[in-house]
Design brief:
Length: about 325
């Protein structure tokens, strides 16, 4: 028994260190080492690629600015991912951001933006910071941070993610609860390449776990329910009806009403639909794991994979199942 305990205490830390690497090695597709993504994707020379411009609605100025595609991608990556992240994670983010806007341009559906624009500069579409905004935000750190962002964008120039020849819905989010989510279980729409996968690296994120406190009255008001005091003190004041593949709350019953995990999260302004509840006196303690909707690429997961030695191609093919890498010129034919 003593020998077993010694082996266990020595082996457990080693297992915890090796497990994430084993997972990604098992499920990641083969790739060409650390080669630039632009070199492994079907890639049209820049001189042959059509000149693509993006019309961005600047929310604060209430104006439309027209910028070259790759300039726009630099602004999105700068706004959406910390410049300190690993280079391969930044490249993965650049491809996801480029795919998002190329998909919009391909579909030509701009009825959700002001006239003359193609995309908003907020998280409703993709956050975007122009160079002046980045200078003001980063101050003396501008040169090295902007340099890393530009390097990632240039290394992936023109590359988009496709499924059966069409640009994918390249959703991404900050931090998972250890798993990404099936699209059908959050957005109620099945998407073949948006499937739940393990993402154990996210535990390193500062947003991995957070506890939010509400009064019972505030909870009741936000949800439109009444919680009977005798039920609450008995510990049966809510019930998790269903859990998702990604171990989030699928459905919850509380105060005589049933909510989807997404609806519950949005009504209470929670970081994630992976949550637990605890009642203490007149207050409700809500502990969430992860940050964001959980569908697609986890940014902290991407950074963890990059630290484990995976390149951008392996990262995007892990989080977006069954996709291909193509040049945007072949996608935007019209």
């Amino acid at each position: 028994m003593k020998r077993f305990l010694i082996v266990w205490f020595i082996g457990l830390p080693i297992l915890l260190v090796l497990m994430p690497a084993a997972l990604v090695s098992l499920f990641s597709p083969p790739s060409n080492g650390s080669a630039d993504v632009a070199a492994v994707a079907p890639h049209a020379p820049a001189s042959n690629r059509p000149s693509i411009e993006v019309k961005v609605y600047r929310t604060n100025k209430k104006t439309v600015e027209t910028v070259p595609l790759e300039t726009y991608i630099e602004g999105v990556v700068a706004a959406e991912m910390p410049a300190e992240f690993e280079m391969e994670a930044l490249k993965a983010q650049a491809m996801a951001a480029r795919t998002y806007i190329v998909r919009r341009l391909s579909e030509k559906k701009f009825d959700d933006v002001p006239a003359g624009a193609q995309v908003l500069d907020t998280v409703k579409h993709q956050a975007y910071l122009d160079e002046q905004q980045r200078r003001e935000l980063w101050k003396e750190q501008f040169d090295w941070k902007n340099g890393r962002i530009r390097q990632a964008v240039q290394a992936t120039a023109g590359v988009v993610l496709t499924y059966q020849g069409e640009p994918i819905d390249a959703t991404f989010f900050s931090t998972s609860n250890g798993f990404t989510e099936n699209a059908s279980e959050y957005f109620e729409k099945p998407v073949p390449y948006l499937k739940s996968v393990a993402s154990p690296w996210d535990i390193q994120s500062p947003s991995y776990e957070k506890t939010q406190v509400l009064t019972v009255a505030d909870l009741e008001q936000k949800l439109g329910v009444r919680i009977a005091q005798e039920t609450a003190t008995g510990g049966n004041w809510y019930r998790i009806v269903e859990r998702t593949t990604g171990n989030r709350v699928g459905k919850i019953s509380i105060g005589g009403k049933e909510f989807s995990g997404r609806e519950f999260r949005e009504r209470l302004g929670l970081n994630s639909s992976a949550f637990s509840l605890e009642l203490r006196g007149g207050q409700v303690y809500i502990t969430t794991k992860g940050y964001g909707h959980g569908v697609g690429m986890s940014q902290w997961g991407a950074n963890g994979m990059a630290k484990a030695g995976k390149n951008a191609e392996q990262i995007v093919k892990y989080f977006y199942q069954g996709i291909s890498l193509e040049d945007c010129g072949s996608v935007l034919k019209g």
